[in-house]
Amino acid sequence: MLLIYCPYCEEERNELEFRNGGDAHIARPTNIADITDEEFEEYFFIRQNPKGLIYERWRHVHGCGKFFNAARDTVSDRFYLSYKAGEPKPDPATFLNNGNESALNKDKGASK
Amino acid sequence: MSGANRISGWGRLTPAKTARFTFDGKSYTALEGDTVASALLANGVHLLGRSFKYHRPRGILTAGPEEPNALLDVSRDAARRQPNVRATVQEVFDGMVTSSQNRWPSLALDIGAVNDLMSPFFAAGFYYKTFMWPKKAWEKVYEPFIRKAAGLGEAPKEEDPDHYAGRYAHTDVLVVGAGVAGLSAALAAAKSGAKVMLVDEQPEVGGALHYDTGVKINGKDGFTWAQETAAELKAMDNVTVLSRTTAFGYYNHNMIALCERVTDHKAKPGKNEPRERLWQVRAKRVILATGQIERHMVFENNDRPGVMLASAGRTFLNHFGVAVGQKVGIYTAHDSAYEAAFDLKRAGISVPAIVDSREKPGEAVLAQARAMGIEVLTGHAVLTVGGKLRVNSMTVGRHAGSATRKIAIDALLVSAGWTPSVHLFSQSRGKLRWDAETQRFLPGTYAQDSLSVGACNGTDDLQATIEEALAAGELMAKAAGAEGNGKIEITGEAPFSWTGGMIGAAEGAGPDTTVKAFIDFQHDVCAKDIRLAVREGMQSIEHIKRFTTNGMASDQGKLSNMHGLAIAAEMLGKDIPQVGLTTFRQPYTPVTFGTIINHSRGDLFDPARKTPIHPWAVAKGAEFEDVGNWKRAWYYAKPGEDMHAAVARECKTVRDVAGIFDASTLGKIEVVGPDAAKFLNLMYTNAWDTLKPGKCRYGIMTREDGFIYDDGVVGRMAEDRFHVTTTTGGAPRVLQHMEDYLQTEFPDLKVWLTSTTEQWAVIAVQGPKAREIIAPLVEGIDISNEAFPHMSVAEGKICGVPTRLFRMSFTGELGFEINVPADYGQAVWEAVWARAEPMGACPYGTETMHVLRAEKGYIIVGQDTDGTVTPDDASLNWAVSKKKPDFVGIRGLKRPDLVAPGRKQLVGLLTKDPNGVLEEGAQVVADPNEPKPMTMLGHVTSSYWSSNCGRSIAMALIADGKNRNGKTLYVPMADRTIAVEVVTDMVFFDKEGGRLNV
């Protein structure tokens, strides 16, 4: 059972309170009506399903109701950090290789 | 007397406290604190069951949770019965009834034992190969036969009368295992000021100190020190000590699941006590002090009752005061078993010989054995043992074919060494490393915030274990935020340090033999089966495991995995780490379903949602159907009516007079803000900015891929306020979908979304007399057809309470939907009913609602659509705005496949025989004579008897349906083929729609 840090509530809460929302940082094209089939395919269907670092969306559905993003390792399920929707995609260099601590070890304010 | 083999003055149980129990109908006396195993051994009972596959007689192999053999059926009363209980774990309580399993007609004479003679035919992979042909026999002959033979024990049929509890806990440091290491670690962590939980599966703390009586800690007897330390911990405010509690699962982010057995050891459980309690513990830090499990020696007939682990023999003697035999042989590859011989000898038991497979045992134990006058045969093997229901001799030699000696014994203690219990570490996704020197897997790379200490970490020396545990306790407490001084000193002394160990088959059970030398007792897997698997081409340990079923029983191979791995590695000519290890999975030991579900049963299994009008419907005798979690009134049968008659009457009454319907379950979302219309324009295919306040409109929501996601009527209450309705089942996901776009794609829009599903009770009044029924109750709204035409909405009062009144219809009749605050729902409903009843109207349920809407060709999302249907497929293109620059789905709808001809489209079906009603879900074909498999054109989505049309009506998704108007298609059923005519116009009743606008 994951422990997930909500950047709005500013605390770690049980996975039961959240719902995963798939990959993060996939912006809906502003001219979506005019894009080609290939562009629509890329936007809507193609996902990397990486082994390792993933940026993904979560919603604190049984909490504040907010959507936010998180960087997680899909192998260890370690959360590196979570941040509010709309904030830029963080550079992995800023949070990877920060020692061997998992989300639990870190400062509660990891995302701040 | 509590058994002839109880040695006076030995063990820790109190002779005065006895308990009576039965085994296979015979009554025995036990001492309080006995396990079923120790009590039966005290009474000289070694034969406890028959093995799974060969029905071989089996006894007690261990004294702990790793027991693969001694599985009994244990009951308290008729309904409180549990199969496959490990006799070595279950404590005796007064009045307990136990029985052996897998035998008929009796344990000593078991017909199924013929399987043992037939065993050449039951080799590994037997089932996979034998029952392949003829194909037909599988279903009729093989499967029923195998199913009957399969399974150990008999599941209780009665409902479990016990209750189970669940609890969540948060702690700084969780310590699993309360042996020397766990107690030391917990003490250091607790003294540091951390919040500590210490859990152990046994009734008392102590772990290996139960049997290892030579150990002194802080100058005291080790077991006494353990109890005193536990008492000290329990007295501390920051410590919780749980005994009889198994940490069975290590999950993500230091979430540990515990099973606490609260009453299974009590003769008279308290009335309010749960039988077991599930703990879900979130720990900042975890210390694993899970110890190690002794391995058995692999030799011929090593499964005979009376053969058991050396540590088990010591536990029965030193803790329970029970001698496992009077002439006890030892067969070992490890020094630890020597101490069993010493203990037995001191208790006055004869030890005919210690047979050691090694040429050079540890010098200290060897010297002690000689000093005590025990014969030690080094470099020797027990080639086989005699005795069927109880071991009576061992045949000892240097190797098979050498000169052998037969030694009379009545029990044989064995040890091939020790396997660290890395189960929880592995479950935490930590990576194990192979320690070549000591031939064992040890914790390598940690994946979570935990540390292993003591035996499970490969630390053998007692003082080193203590120091490692103390350091870990302090370190983990500090890491969890504790700031106290946890420095303590504990000194331990053990009489001997142990060396040795072997994995795999012993002398006489090697690759050149076909003897039955068991590695997995519970699944009857022998050394030769592993070899056969390799010869059959299995290379991966995962394949070997599945082919032989080694380690797949409920003991999960606690004793067998390493032996199996070593034998496979030898056959494959590879090193053990190259062959790999199978995955350790939760649970560590079997956990009852009761514990896992605990409170979530009966009414608490899933919440039931009920509308404010529910009690009225119950009083009126409505039948209910489940829609999501909602209980919805299905139909209101009058005395003597079946469902068919009731629905036919309700349908007719609504169209002839009127009906009232509880629509409270409809999802409702209040969409408010200056950009509300703009937002809805993006979320629905329709245009909303053109909708005037006071009007409502049917809307379709598509996903980005262009498929219909939901539908509903949306009323505009004001420029900046919409009352959105969704399908009953769709409410949560529609809100989630809207929130998603609002928060992440269109965050600049000034809109607020609020779920109001449960705030409004909704009373639909439908039928020619609908206006007449509600007119006198409504205040402040002119509900005449001219002032309040179809698809209007207004706020006013009804029965003196505020209402949002919709003029709308899901029946095709003149209709109103009265929204009132939920608390007034039943009162307003009753007021409406008081008007409606004298006019001849009726209440109707969801079934009638379904029929009436189908008569009008209105779709139900999720029934007539399935997530692959576009608005055009459902002939709802009129609801898709052609003018909007954007909405969710606008691009998806242009995808080549979605505009291609020949798609499955929703059409009406009329059976050629008007009385025949199609089955929903039935497949539709063009040519009923086509050989199978036939070309399926689609399926029936909705089908009803329509009393208003006087015939059956149906809707179906049919490939290229819109081009098949008037064509005949066929619905093949098991017993006949039904001819149907396609009608693209799905309006079966009142095609002009005149009844809506009166």
TrEMBL record, chain A:
It comes from Gellertiella hungarica. InterPro entries: SoxD (IPR006279), SoxD_sf (IPR038561). The lineage of its organism: Bacteria, Pseudomonadati, Pseudomonadota, Alphaproteobacteria, Hyphomicrobiales. This is Heterotetrameric sarcosine oxidase delta subunit. NCBIfam families: soxD. GO terms for biological process: tetrahydrofolate metabolic process. Residues 87-112 are annotated as: Disordered. It holds the Pfam family SoxD. It comes from the Bacteria. GO terms for molecular function: sarcosine oxidase activity.
Automatic annotation (TrEMBL), chain B:
Residues 613-884 form the GCVT N-terminal domain. One of its GO terms (biological process) is tetrahydrofolate metabolic process. GO terms for molecular function: sarcosine oxidase activity. Its EC number is 1.5.3.1. It comes from the Bacteria. Transmembrane segments: none annotated. Keywords: Oxidoreductase. Residues 172-429 form the FAD/NAD(P)-binding domain. It holds the Pfam family SO_alpha_A3. Residues 516-596 form the SoxA A3 domain. Residues 904-990 form the Aminomethyltransferase C-terminal domain. InterPro entries: 2Fe-2S-bd_N, BFD-like_2Fe2S-bd_dom_sf, FAD/NAD-bd_sf, FAD/NAD-binding_dom, GcvT/YgfZ/DmdA, GcvT/YgfZ_C, GcvT_C, GCVT_N. Belongs to the GcvT family. NCBIfam families: soxA. This is Sarcosine oxidase subunit alpha. It comes from Gellertiella hungarica.
